Amino acid sequence: MIPMVDLKKQFQEIKEDVFHVLTEILESSRYILGANVSELEKEVADYHGIKEAIGVASGTDALHLSIDALGIGEGDEVITTPFTFFATVEAILYTGATPVFVDIESDTFNIDINRIEANITEKTKAILPVHLFGHPANMGKILFISKKNKLKVIEDCAQSFGAGINGKKVGSFGNAGCFSFYPSKNLGGYGDGGIIILNDSKVAETIRELRNHGSRGSYIHNRVGFNSRLDEIQAGILLIKLKLIDEYNRKRRRNAALYTKLLSDKVKCPVEKKGAYHVFHQYTIISPKRNEIQQRLKENGISSVIYYPVPLHLQKALKFLGYQKGDFPVAEKAAREVLSLPMYPELEESIIMKIAEIIRDVS
C-alpha cells in the first residue's frame, strides 16, 4: 500500500543522527526540559525571527495554553473556522470560551476574511485562523480586523511549519503561533509534541508556568497549571529535522507542482495565493467524484484520506453550540468533495504519475 506519508523512508535517511542523539540523551539521564528542549526553543524562535519559543506536550496544548495565557476564558468568544481538526475547537472550549465559526474560502479552505467582522460581538476576544494544509491564511486582513476591534490573534500553525507570506513566517504575525510536532507533520517528532512562539515575554513566562504545573521550579506554584512539557527525546529528534525542514518543504512543493501539472485539467487542485508560500502538509484536490476516485485508488493499493468528512459545526460533540446543516455551505461542500493524496518529501515521481493516471481515468 502506498502510504499518505512514509516516515520509515525518512527515518532511514537520518537514522545515524537519530541513534547518536538518543544515545546522548539516554546517557545524560536528563529527560524533561533539558538542554535539547532549550536549544530547540532557541532555534525555532530564531527560525521565525521571534523572541520567545516554549516547547509543550502537543499542538493541542500549544493552542490551549496560548489562549489561557492571553486571558481568554469563561464568557469570551473566539472566532475560528469550522473546517479544521477538532483540536482547534477543543483548545478554545478547555478555557471556558465559546468558538464562533465563520465559513471558509473555497480555494484555500482557510477562514473567509470577508465574513469575520459580521461575527464580532462585545464578547469576542480573539481570532484563531488555521493555516490549513500548509497554505497561510490572509494574515494581513486578519491583523487589520484584529487591531480595529482590539482582538488577540492566535495562529494555528499545526500544518504549516515553514509556510509564509511575503517572506514572513506563519506563527510570527499574531500574539502567538502554535505548532504541532505530531509525527506526520512537515516537522514531526516520534511522538506527541508542540511549541508556541511569541514576542511578549510576560505572556511567555505565564505559558512556561502553565506547562509545568503553574511553577517556575523549586515546588513553588504561582497558579494552577498543567503537565505539558516537551521531552528531551522529542526535542533531540526535532533538532535533527529542523535543519532539514526547508529542504523537506521544497520537495513537497516540487511534488505538488507535478501533481498539479498532471491533474489540473481534471480536478480542482490546490492554489497558492499571491505572496503566499505553501508547504503542502496535504495535497488536497476537489472533485464531485471524490468517493469514486478514493475507491479506485484503494483498489490500486494507494492511500487517500478525507480531511475533513464532517465540518466541526455538524459534529455530535459540538451540537450544544447550536449550529445546523446549511450554516456554512462552503465548508459543507468541501467536506463532500475534498480528497488528500499521498504527500511527503521522499515521494517518488513515478508514484505521483501512477496516482494521477488513476485519477484522470476516473475523472
Please provide a written account of the structure.
The structure is a single chain. The strands form four sheets. This protein has a seven-stranded mixed beta sheet with strand order 1-9-8-5-4-2-3, sandwiched between helices. The chain has a three-stranded antiparallel beta sheet with strand order 7-6-12, with no helix packed on it. A two-stranded antiparallel sheet has the order 10-11. The mean pLDDT is 98. With 363 residues, it is α/β, with parallel strands linked by helices. It is built from eleven helices and 14 strands. Helix 1 (7-28) crosses helix 7. The two termini are 22 Å apart. The radius of gyration is 20 Å and the shape is globular. The chain has two domains: 7-102 and 109-242, Aspartate Aminotransferase, domain 2; 245-362, Aspartate Aminotransferase, domain 1 (Alpha-Beta Complex).
